[in-house]
Amino acid sequence: MYPVRRGKHKIFIGMAPGVGKTFRMLEEGHALKHEGFDVVIGLLETHGRKETEEKAEGLEIVPRKQVLRGGLTLTEMDTDAILKRSPQLVLIDELAHTNIPGSPREKRYEDVEIVLTAGIDVYSTMNVQHLESLNDLVARITGVVVRERVPDRILEEADEVVVIDVTPETLQERLLEGKIYAPEKIQQALDNFFQRRNLIALRELALREVADNIEENAIATTLNGQYCNIHERVLVCVSTYPNSLQLLRRGARLANYMNAPLYTLFVANPERFLTKEESLHIHTCEKLCKEFDGTFLRVTTHDIAQAIAETAEKYRITQIVIGESQRSRWQILLKGSLTQKLVRLLKNIDIHIIASEKTSSSKR
User: Where do the Signal transduction histidine kinase osmosensitive K+ channel sensor N-terminal domain residues begin and end (predicted)?
Assistant: First the structure.
Protein backbone atom coordinates (compact mmCIF):
# COMPACT_ATOMS: atom_id res chain seq x y z
CA MET A 1 0.00 0.00 0.00
CA TYR A 2 1.42 3.38 -1.03
CA PRO A 3 1.65 6.13 1.62
CA VAL A 4 -0.93 8.92 1.32
CA ARG A 5 0.57 12.05 -0.22
CA ARG A 6 0.25 15.14 1.93
CA GLY A 7 -2.33 17.62 0.67
CA LYS A 8 -1.21 20.94 -0.78
CA HIS A 9 -1.88 24.08 1.26
CA LYS A 10 -2.63 27.47 -0.30
CA ILE A 11 -3.01 30.46 2.02
CA PHE A 12 -4.73 33.73 1.09
CA ILE A 13 -3.28 36.46 3.32
CA GLY A 14 -4.23 40.12 3.67
CA MET A 15 -3.45 43.21 5.71
CA ALA A 16 -6.81 43.42 7.50
CA PRO A 17 -10.41 42.15 7.55
CA GLY A 18 -12.38 43.07 4.43
CA VAL A 19 -9.63 42.96 1.80
CA GLY A 20 -11.33 40.07 0.00
CA LYS A 21 -9.44 36.93 1.09
CA THR A 22 -12.53 34.75 1.57
CA PHE A 23 -14.14 36.05 -1.63
CA ARG A 24 -11.01 35.19 -3.62
CA MET A 25 -10.78 31.75 -2.02
CA LEU A 26 -14.42 31.05 -3.00
CA GLU A 27 -13.76 32.33 -6.54
CA GLU A 28 -10.91 29.88 -7.00
CA GLY A 29 -12.98 27.10 -5.44
CA HIS A 30 -15.74 27.70 -8.02
CA ALA A 31 -13.19 27.73 -10.85
CA LEU A 32 -11.77 24.35 -9.80
CA LYS A 33 -15.25 22.87 -9.35
CA HIS A 34 -16.06 24.01 -12.90
CA GLU A 35 -12.95 22.11 -14.07
CA GLY A 36 -14.29 18.95 -12.45
CA PHE A 37 -12.57 18.97 -9.06
CA ASP A 38 -14.41 17.79 -5.95
CA VAL A 39 -14.53 20.98 -3.85
CA VAL A 40 -16.30 21.55 -0.52
CA ILE A 41 -16.46 24.32 2.06
CA GLY A 42 -15.18 23.05 5.40
CA LEU A 43 -15.68 26.31 7.28
CA LEU A 44 -16.92 29.66 6.03
CA GLU A 45 -17.17 32.91 8.03
CA THR A 46 -19.18 35.46 6.02
CA HIS A 47 -19.56 37.97 8.90
CA GLY A 48 -22.88 38.89 7.33
CA ARG A 49 -21.25 40.14 4.12
CA LYS A 50 -23.81 39.73 1.35
CA GLU A 51 -21.29 39.40 -1.51
CA THR A 52 -19.44 36.63 0.34
CA GLU A 53 -22.63 34.75 1.10
CA GLU A 54 -23.69 34.92 -2.56
CA LYS A 55 -20.24 33.77 -3.70
CA ALA A 56 -20.57 30.60 -1.59
CA GLU A 57 -23.72 29.53 -3.40
CA GLY A 58 -23.26 26.44 -5.52
CA LEU A 59 -20.48 24.96 -3.37
CA GLU A 60 -21.18 22.05 -1.04
CA ILE A 61 -20.81 22.95 2.65
CA VAL A 62 -19.81 20.34 5.24
CA PRO A 63 -22.21 20.94 8.19
CA ARG A 64 -20.65 22.34 11.33
CA LYS A 65 -20.40 20.31 14.49
CA GLN A 66 -22.69 21.52 17.29
CA VAL A 67 -21.18 21.75 20.78
CA LEU A 68 -23.16 22.37 23.98
CA ARG A 69 -21.30 24.72 26.35
CA GLY A 70 -22.84 26.34 29.44
CA GLY A 71 -26.39 26.04 28.18
CA LEU A 72 -25.44 27.48 24.78
CA THR A 73 -25.18 25.59 21.50
CA LEU A 74 -21.98 26.64 19.73
CA THR A 75 -20.71 25.50 16.35
CA GLU A 76 -17.24 24.48 15.21
CA MET A 77 -15.66 23.03 12.08
CA ASP A 78 -16.28 19.28 11.88
CA THR A 79 -12.86 17.93 10.96
CA ASP A 80 -13.98 14.29 11.24
CA ALA A 81 -16.84 14.94 8.80
CA ILE A 82 -14.40 16.54 6.33
CA LEU A 83 -12.10 13.50 6.56
CA LYS A 84 -15.06 11.16 6.05
CA ARG A 85 -16.30 13.20 3.05
CA SER A 86 -12.72 13.14 1.67
CA PRO A 87 -12.96 15.77 -1.10
CA GLN A 88 -10.06 16.76 -3.34
CA LEU A 89 -10.11 20.33 -1.98
CA VAL A 90 -11.60 21.88 1.14
CA LEU A 91 -11.95 25.64 1.76
CA ILE A 92 -11.30 26.64 5.38
CA ASP A 93 -11.68 30.23 6.56
CA GLU A 94 -9.80 32.00 9.40
CA LEU A 95 -6.71 29.89 10.01
CA ALA A 96 -5.94 31.63 13.33
CA HIS A 97 -9.29 30.78 14.95
CA THR A 98 -9.25 29.29 18.47
CA ASN A 99 -11.53 26.29 18.80
CA ILE A 100 -14.15 25.89 21.54
CA PRO A 101 -12.56 24.63 24.81
CA GLY A 102 -12.74 20.86 24.96
CA SER A 103 -12.29 20.43 21.19
CA PRO A 104 -9.84 17.71 20.05
CA ARG A 105 -7.44 20.45 18.94
CA GLU A 106 -6.96 23.96 20.30
CA LYS A 107 -6.46 25.86 17.02
CA ARG A 108 -8.00 25.65 13.56
CA TYR A 109 -4.59 25.50 11.88
CA GLU A 110 -4.05 22.22 13.79
CA ASP A 111 -7.25 20.86 12.23
CA VAL A 112 -5.94 21.99 8.84
CA GLU A 113 -2.75 19.99 9.41
CA ILE A 114 -4.84 16.87 10.12
CA VAL A 115 -6.74 17.40 6.85
CA LEU A 116 -3.51 17.92 4.90
CA THR A 117 -2.00 14.76 6.40
CA ALA A 118 -5.03 12.84 5.09
CA GLY A 119 -4.05 13.89 1.54
CA ILE A 120 -6.74 16.55 1.09
CA ASP A 121 -5.76 19.91 -0.43
CA VAL A 122 -6.67 22.98 1.63
CA TYR A 123 -7.28 26.62 0.73
CA SER A 124 -7.30 28.83 3.85
CA THR A 125 -7.29 32.51 4.84
CA MET A 126 -5.60 34.69 7.45
CA ASN A 127 -4.60 38.28 8.18
CA VAL A 128 -0.94 39.22 8.54
CA GLN A 129 -1.42 40.50 12.11
CA HIS A 130 -2.09 36.91 13.23
CA LEU A 131 1.43 35.76 12.32
CA GLU A 132 3.31 34.87 15.51
CA SER A 133 6.61 36.65 14.72
CA LEU A 134 4.82 39.92 13.89
CA ASN A 135 2.74 40.01 17.07
CA ASP A 136 4.83 42.57 18.99
CA LEU A 137 5.32 44.74 15.89
CA VAL A 138 1.59 44.78 15.13
CA ALA A 139 0.87 45.75 18.74
CA ARG A 140 3.29 48.70 18.43
CA ILE A 141 1.74 49.80 15.12
CA THR A 142 -1.93 49.48 16.01
CA GLY A 143 -2.02 49.42 19.81
CA VAL A 144 -3.93 46.13 19.56
CA VAL A 145 -2.52 42.91 21.02
CA VAL A 146 -3.67 40.08 18.75
CA ARG A 147 -4.58 37.03 20.86
CA GLU A 148 -5.14 34.50 18.08
CA ARG A 149 -1.86 33.66 16.39
CA VAL A 150 -0.51 31.28 13.75
CA PRO A 151 3.08 29.92 13.97
CA ASP A 152 5.39 31.15 11.22
CA ARG A 153 6.08 27.56 10.18
CA ILE A 154 2.51 27.23 8.85
CA LEU A 155 3.20 30.00 6.34
CA GLU A 156 6.69 28.68 5.58
CA GLU A 157 5.40 25.14 4.94
CA ALA A 158 2.52 26.29 2.71
CA ASP A 159 2.81 25.30 -0.95
CA GLU A 160 1.54 28.71 -2.06
CA VAL A 161 0.89 32.05 -0.35
CA VAL A 162 -1.19 34.68 -2.13
CA VAL A 163 -1.46 38.24 -0.85
CA ILE A 164 -4.87 39.84 -1.41
CA ASP A 165 -3.97 43.49 -1.74
CA VAL A 166 -6.09 46.64 -1.82
CA THR A 167 -5.13 50.23 -1.05
CA PRO A 168 -5.89 51.62 2.43
CA GLU A 169 -8.29 54.09 0.77
CA THR A 170 -10.26 51.28 -0.89
CA LEU A 171 -10.47 49.38 2.39
CA GLN A 172 -11.73 52.45 4.25
CA GLU A 173 -14.35 52.99 1.51
CA ARG A 174 -15.54 49.39 1.94
CA LEU A 175 -15.77 49.98 5.68
CA LEU A 176 -17.85 53.16 5.25
CA GLU A 177 -20.14 51.35 2.80
CA GLY A 178 -20.92 48.76 5.49
CA LYS A 179 -19.20 45.93 3.61
CA ILE A 180 -16.93 44.91 6.50
CA TYR A 181 -18.65 45.63 9.83
CA ALA A 182 -22.14 46.48 11.04
CA PRO A 183 -22.98 50.25 10.94
CA GLU A 184 -22.59 50.71 14.71
CA LYS A 185 -18.98 49.45 14.57
CA ILE A 186 -17.77 51.52 11.60
CA GLN A 187 -16.65 54.70 13.37
CA GLN A 188 -14.94 52.78 16.15
CA ALA A 189 -13.01 50.76 13.54
CA LEU A 190 -11.97 53.94 11.65
CA ASP A 191 -10.75 55.56 14.88
CA ASN A 192 -8.72 52.53 15.89
CA PHE A 193 -7.49 49.58 13.81
CA PHE A 194 -8.58 51.02 10.45
CA GLN A 195 -6.64 54.28 10.73
CA ARG A 196 -4.88 54.99 7.45
CA ARG A 197 -1.38 54.90 8.98
CA ASN A 198 -2.12 51.47 10.50
CA LEU A 199 -3.37 50.11 7.19
CA ILE A 200 -0.32 51.41 5.31
CA ALA A 201 2.02 49.67 7.79
CA LEU A 202 0.01 46.44 7.79
CA ARG A 203 -0.11 46.43 3.99
CA GLU A 204 3.68 46.71 3.84
CA LEU A 205 4.00 43.84 6.35
CA ALA A 206 1.74 41.61 4.25
CA LEU A 207 3.54 42.37 0.99
CA ARG A 208 6.96 41.93 2.59
CA GLU A 209 5.97 38.65 4.24
CA VAL A 210 4.95 37.16 0.91
CA ALA A 211 8.09 38.53 -0.77
CA ASP A 212 10.19 36.84 1.93
CA ASN A 213 8.30 33.62 1.37
CA ILE A 214 8.88 33.76 -2.39
CA GLU A 215 12.60 34.53 -1.96
CA GLU A 216 13.15 31.70 0.53
CA ASN A 217 11.33 29.24 -1.75
CA ALA A 218 13.42 30.39 -4.73
CA ILE A 219 16.63 29.78 -2.78
CA ALA A 220 15.46 26.38 -1.55
CA THR A 221 14.52 25.18 -5.03
CA THR A 222 17.45 26.62 -7.00
CA LEU A 223 20.22 24.14 -7.71
CA ASN A 224 22.87 26.35 -9.31
CA GLY A 225 22.70 29.22 -6.81
CA GLN A 226 21.50 31.70 -9.45
CA TYR A 227 18.38 33.20 -7.89
CA CYS A 228 16.84 36.64 -7.79
CA ASN A 229 16.96 38.62 -4.54
CA ILE A 230 13.70 40.44 -3.92
CA HIS A 231 14.99 42.51 -0.99
CA GLU A 232 18.02 44.80 -1.07
CA ARG A 233 20.84 44.11 1.43
CA VAL A 234 23.81 46.45 1.91
CA LEU A 235 27.36 45.42 2.87
CA VAL A 236 29.96 48.03 3.87
CA CYS A 237 33.59 46.89 3.79
CA VAL A 238 35.69 48.68 6.42
CA SER A 239 39.42 48.57 7.09
CA THR A 240 41.99 50.29 9.28
CA TYR A 241 41.95 53.27 6.91
CA PRO A 242 40.37 56.46 8.34
CA ASN A 243 37.72 56.68 5.60
CA SER A 244 35.89 53.62 7.02
CA LEU A 245 33.53 55.77 9.11
CA GLN A 246 32.65 57.76 5.99
CA LEU A 247 31.91 54.51 4.15
CA LEU A 248 29.71 53.33 7.00
CA ARG A 249 27.66 56.51 7.01
CA ARG A 250 27.24 56.31 3.24
CA GLY A 251 26.22 52.66 3.46
CA ALA A 252 23.75 53.43 6.26
CA ARG A 253 22.12 56.16 4.14
CA LEU A 254 21.88 53.75 1.22
CA ALA A 255 20.35 51.04 3.43
CA ASN A 256 17.88 53.51 4.90
CA TYR A 257 16.88 54.75 1.44
CA MET A 258 16.32 51.17 0.25
CA ASN A 259 14.71 50.05 3.52
CA ALA A 260 17.40 47.35 3.58
CA PRO A 261 19.35 45.59 6.34
CA LEU A 262 22.92 46.85 6.83
CA TYR A 263 25.98 44.62 7.23
CA THR A 264 29.55 45.74 7.93
CA LEU A 265 32.58 43.53 7.24
CA PHE A 266 36.15 43.83 8.53
CA VAL A 267 38.69 41.37 7.07
CA ALA A 268 41.64 40.87 9.42
CA ASN A 269 45.06 39.69 8.23
CA PRO A 270 46.01 36.57 10.28
CA GLU A 271 49.72 37.51 10.20
CA ARG A 272 49.31 41.09 11.38
CA PHE A 273 48.36 42.36 14.81
CA LEU A 274 46.44 45.60 14.97
CA THR A 275 47.96 48.52 16.82
CA LYS A 276 46.07 49.98 19.76
CA GLU A 277 44.94 52.88 17.56
CA GLU A 278 43.78 50.54 14.78
CA SER A 279 41.89 48.33 17.26
CA LEU A 280 40.15 51.40 18.64
CA HIS A 281 39.26 52.47 15.09
CA ILE A 282 37.66 49.08 14.26
CA HIS A 283 35.82 49.16 17.60
CA THR A 284 34.44 52.59 16.65
CA CYS A 285 33.29 51.16 13.31
CA GLU A 286 31.52 48.31 15.09
CA LYS A 287 29.85 50.70 17.52
CA LEU A 288 28.69 52.99 14.68
CA CYS A 289 27.37 49.98 12.74
CA LYS A 290 25.25 48.94 15.72
CA GLU A 291 23.98 52.50 16.13
CA PHE A 292 22.64 52.15 12.58
CA ASP A 293 20.99 48.83 13.63
CA GLY A 294 23.47 46.96 11.45
CA THR A 295 25.28 43.63 11.84
CA PHE A 296 29.05 43.74 12.28
CA LEU A 297 31.05 40.82 10.84
CA ARG A 298 34.73 39.99 11.29
CA VAL A 299 36.61 37.48 9.12
CA THR A 300 40.30 36.47 9.39
CA THR A 301 41.95 35.58 6.07
CA HIS A 302 44.66 36.63 3.60
CA ASP A 303 42.21 36.88 0.70
CA ILE A 304 40.10 40.01 1.20
CA ALA A 305 38.21 39.76 -2.11
CA GLN A 306 37.27 36.12 -1.51
CA ALA A 307 36.10 36.94 2.04
CA ILE A 308 33.86 39.73 0.71
CA ALA A 309 32.48 37.47 -2.02
CA GLU A 310 31.71 34.64 0.42
CA THR A 311 30.05 37.04 2.87
CA ALA A 312 27.99 38.54 0.05
CA GLU A 313 26.78 35.09 -0.97
CA LYS A 314 26.04 33.99 2.61
CA TYR A 315 23.97 37.07 3.44
CA ARG A 316 22.50 37.51 -0.07
CA ILE A 317 23.98 41.00 -0.44
CA THR A 318 22.79 43.18 -3.34
CA GLN A 319 24.83 46.37 -2.73
CA ILE A 320 28.49 46.62 -1.63
CA VAL A 321 30.15 49.84 -0.44
CA ILE A 322 33.96 50.00 -0.54
CA GLY A 323 36.56 52.77 -0.48
CA GLU A 324 38.76 53.67 -3.41
CA SER A 325 42.05 51.80 -3.49
CA GLN A 326 44.82 53.09 -1.19
CA ARG A 327 47.47 51.30 -3.27
CA SER A 328 49.80 53.05 -5.65
CA ARG A 329 49.24 52.71 -9.39
CA TRP A 330 52.33 50.48 -9.59
CA GLN A 331 50.93 48.09 -6.92
CA ILE A 332 47.58 47.94 -8.72
CA LEU A 333 49.34 47.21 -12.01
CA LEU A 334 51.28 44.33 -10.41
CA LYS A 335 48.57 42.76 -8.22
CA GLY A 336 45.29 44.23 -9.42
CA SER A 337 42.83 46.25 -7.38
CA LEU A 338 40.25 44.92 -4.91
CA THR A 339 37.50 46.34 -7.14
CA GLN A 340 38.76 44.41 -10.17
CA LYS A 341 38.83 41.17 -8.17
CA LEU A 342 35.32 41.76 -6.81
CA VAL A 343 33.91 42.44 -10.28
CA ARG A 344 35.29 39.05 -11.36
CA LEU A 345 33.94 37.25 -8.28
CA LEU A 346 30.51 38.87 -7.92
CA LYS A 347 27.53 38.70 -10.22
CA ASN A 348 24.37 40.82 -10.04
CA ILE A 349 25.72 42.93 -7.16
CA ASP A 350 26.19 46.71 -7.38
CA ILE A 351 29.57 47.95 -6.13
CA HIS A 352 29.72 51.53 -4.83
CA ILE A 353 33.29 52.93 -4.74
CA ILE A 354 33.48 55.90 -2.40
CA ALA A 355 36.26 58.47 -2.88
CA SER A 356 38.16 59.30 0.30
CA GLU A 357 37.42 63.00 0.54
CA LYS A 358 34.63 63.40 -2.01
CA THR A 359 30.89 62.83 -1.72
CA SER A 360 30.42 61.34 -5.17
CA SER A 361 30.14 57.60 -5.74
CA SER A 362 30.37 55.50 -8.85
CA LYS A 363 28.67 52.24 -9.72
CA ARG A 364 30.40 49.47 -11.50
Answer: 5-214
